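Morning. Coffee machine broken again, so started the prediction first thing and wrote up yesterday's gels while waiting. Chain of 188 residues, entered below exactly as on the submission form.
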Amino acid sequence: MHSRYKILGVDPGTLALGYAVIEVDANKISLCCVGTIELKKFSDQQTKLKEIYLQLQEIIETYLPSQMAVEAPFYGKNAQSMLKLGRAQGVSIAAGITMGLNIVEYAPKKIKQSITGNGNASKEQVASMVQAMLNKDLSEISLDASDALAAAITHYHQSKFGVPSTNVKGGGSWKTFINNNPDRIASK
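Came back before lunch.
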């Protein structure tokens, strides 16, 4: 992996789709953009899906990420809602594929675990942690946007560090990992 690259995070939705682009440079993360594609104003699903596709492509053309991290739909009781969410995710992935991005999906629990240490954390807890990680006031962004940002940061963590192993400098224990990566320790 290059020392400098960008990741687009996407939290798919049919009423609002969150997106965020981060840049990684020498293990430092900076925020390029974060926001929400508002889809409530469109009455039919085809138009919503077209908007997702076109607006994500515009974001990709503007910021030139090489990778996309997409939050995968979670299990839901309403089959119709899950179908719509799956379509939004599929169109998001298609936009990334068309633009040549490497794409990875993450389950919501995986993202929450990566960001907060708790797979059952609330959206608000995730938002608070990404704000602390970036040391930036993100109180004005939507929870969909902070979820997209969390997906991008999760992908950075997974691709850079993963779980401590022989791939991580210093070997296989958590203690070694922490000692060799003090910048990765979250403080209260």
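The longest helix spans residues 79-98. Going to sketch it on the whiteboard this afternoon.
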